[in-house]
Amino acid sequence: MATSLSNPLFSRATVEAESELEAASKLVERAFNRIQKSDSKRNRVQQAIKDTRAGKAQEMETHLQWLMQEKARLEQELNSVDKQLEDKRMRLTERAA
Fold it and tell me: How far is residue 71 from each of residues 5, 30, 59, 67, measured CA to CA in Å?
């Protein structure tokens, strides 16, 4: 009689344990999926940051090149104006003499 009582109890305990194990397994799977999603989001954000930094660096480099070209153009223009002023000054000096 003890074996017949213990057998149903054992079967019930086994079913409950399997049910709890399955529930725990589902919880672990959900947690794993959340971690994967957050890792994926983190990777996308890191890539977006990297792309933004690269874009900004390129933008700054392009702007720096433009500024250097503009500086060279303005220096050339200033030299031309200086030469014109010097020529006018020489003509005025010649007229005055």
Answer: 98, 61, 18, 6
Q: Classify the C-alpha dihedral 16-19-25-31 as positive or negative.
A: negative
Q: What is the DSSP letter of 1?
A: -
- CA 83 distance to own-chain centroid: 51
Is the whole-model pTM more than 0.85? no
- Cα–Cα distance between 3 and 1 in angstroms, integer? 5
User: What DSSP letter does each residue of 38-52 carry, written as one string?
Assistant: HHHHHHHHHHHHHHH
pLDDT per residue as tens digits for the range 50-76? 999 999 999 999 999 999 999 999 999
CB neighbour burial string for 28-43, b if at least 16 within 10 angstroms, e if fewer: eeeeeeeeeeeeeeee
In a 3-state reduction of DSSP, which class is residue 85? helix
Residues 71, 72, 77, 79, CA torsion sign: positive
